[in-house]
Amino acid sequence: MTINHNTDPFIQKTNNFFSWLISHASVEVSPKITVQDRRHFAQGFCLTAVEDIQQNEQLFKIPRSSILNVETGSLYKEYLANNVSIKASTKDDFLNNTGIFGQWETLILTIFYEIKVKGDSSFWYNYFQILPQLDNDTSGDIFINNLMYWSDEELYNLKPSLVLTRLGKKQSLELYSNIVNILQNDLQILNVDFNWNEFLYIASLVMSYSFDVELPVPTQSQNSNEQGKEEDEEDEEDEENIGYHKSMVILADLLNADTHRCNANLLYSDTHLIMCSIKPIAKNEQIYNTYGDYPNSELLRRYGYVEWQGSKYDFGEVPLINIKKFFQSKYFSNKNDSTFIDIILQLLSDNEYIVSNILEDETIVMESYDCYINGEIMDEFLCLVQLLTVVCENYQDFVQISSNTIGELGSVLKRIIKLYNNKNMLSGTCIINVKLIFDDRLKEYPNHAFRELNDSISSDNMLQVLREHMADCVLQSEVNSIKNCFNNLEIGKQILTDVDYIGELNSKRKNKRLNNSDVRGNNNNNKRYKKC
Predict the structure, then answer these.
(1) Full residue range of the structural domain in which residue 387 is found
(2) Do 26 and 103 belong to one domain?
(3) Greatest CA span in the chain, whole angstroms?
């Protein structure tokens, strides 16, 4: 399972990796698959079928001892386990991802130790050689392309995508500071520097290549011991640290991912990780895994690539600020009440009666609302727009915020949610407003986001050109998603005239009092609303 172009240094590294994989890492590889160089398609290396593969065939099998994580790495097995000057509680926390050690901290520190301390003596040295290198050289080998490596100018090409609000630079700086502090004070590794560029490199490897590997099922004796624990200790099962180790899985991370063409899946046994086909794979067909239900924007942010024809899970986003601006412009452009929409949204977010009794501790006010490529729209978005439509059309009934109006707002919201959940019922004006909000959002995108994308990208292109194309692809994915939601908005909905919709809102409220004296006092509040 080698590539016969030994003049290429990276191919030599790849051949060394596959030799190590079999001879030292004890990985079992099916003779039906081989490695293929796809760097000229900006895909690095991949695995392909050399003959037809049936569904549920084993493609390769990796011992748990050969994957890299907190438990198998040299940092714990060699350094911490044998260092008597380090507290036992620190060692336990490190191994169990508890206390000051989260999953990210432990894996970053583990990889740091293998690369910076162990170097070419690391068991995983040949594995690290086929990953993007610290200098992130883009001249020929594979390189890291996630958004943390993009310049401000390159990131500008992603506007107005909300992926720009999720870059995580601040959180990364905080994580870096925390890890440096742990290295020096808790792990007492003082003679090895760990600068920001090195941290960013290793954190990007973890982001792009790691798997959350389920731990082996506990033995019967371990289960018996667990049953003796107190109730309060059982709460730990809800923590993110329990049940898996964030791990680098050799060979499995060599697979390219595709949400449309996924044909393999990683399975777990107590002793091995096994990659199996989940559908028939034809000869010469590439083997694909999947990283999850991510849109192109998140594939780019997390992993540094896009699916040129669009992800199966693409979505666009409508920011809450756009909704606020729309209702402010339509209903209050000539009124001196610029805070009305903000007050209503604040009540929907924070009022205890509305949040606890009407929304049942869920939320309807979000920073943004997803609009999916399949035309699906978040229920929260539609119900919020319907509520704001009713409230703005009946402005005088809500302008004086009091216990009465808070109770009335909650009652109207409850009825709107029920009408939509049970009957898919919305008013005509709500539908118009949703379309106008979609239209306003689409106008924020540049013209080229509406044109057909040229997906012919090769490694010969300048990095800047590649990133421009990837940014265009993300914007087009979002535009297509919002357009599909616009076009499919009325499908499956009961759209009533505004008079009829208000009649439905009032039908079960006639001659009823709001039985919430803690919210609205003892006043009878039987408002009936005019049409939207």
Answers:
(1) 315-442+489-520
(2) no
(3) 87
Characterise 136 by phi-psi region: left (phi > 0), alpha (psi -120 to 50), beta (else).
left
How open is the CA angle 71-72-77, to the nearest 5 degrees? 80
| Residue 367 located in a structural domain | yes
Tell me: do 13 and 160 sit in the same domain.
no
Q: Do residue 6 and residue 33 come from a single domain?
A: yes
**For residues 523 and 513, what is the distance between their CA atoms, to the nearest angstrom?**
8
CATH of the domain at 254: 3.90.1410.10
244 domain residue, yes or no: no
pTM over 0.90: no
Of the three residues 261, 278, 307, the one that is the final residue of a domain is 307
Q: In the structure, what pLDDT confidence band is assigned to residue 465 with cuts at 50, 70 and 90? A: confident
Tokens encoding 24:
């030292």
Tally of structural domains, the chain: 3
Stretch (H or E) spanning 468: helix 463-488
| Range with lowest mean pLDDT among 177-181, 306-310, 329-333, 349-353 | 329-333
Confidence of residue 37 (pLDDT cuts 50, 70, 90): confident
Least confident of 35-39, 110-114, 482-486: 35-39
pLDDT digits (tens, 9 = 90+) for 120-148: 999 999 999 988 877 655 444 567 889 99
| CA 454 distance to own-chain centroid | 26
Q: Which two tokens stand for residue 275?
A: 């990659």
Give the pLDDT confidence score for residue 228 in this predicted structure: 47
Q: pLDDT tier at 45 (50, 70, 90 boundaries)?
A: confident
495 in the same domain as 375: yes
**Is the predicted pLDDT of residue 30 greater than 90, yes or no?**
yes
Contact 19, 257 (CB under 8 A): no
Residue 300 resides in a domain: yes
Residues 294 and 354 in one domain: no
- Write the DSSP symbol of residue 420: H
Query: Helix-strand-coil percent breakdown of the chain, rounded to 5?
Result: 50, 10, 40
Residues 310 and 306: their CA atoms lie apart, in Å, by 8
Nearest to 440 by CA among 297, 316, 318, 315: 318
C-beta of residue 320 within 8 angstroms of C-beta of residue 367: yes
Say if residue 375 is in the same domain as residue 507: yes
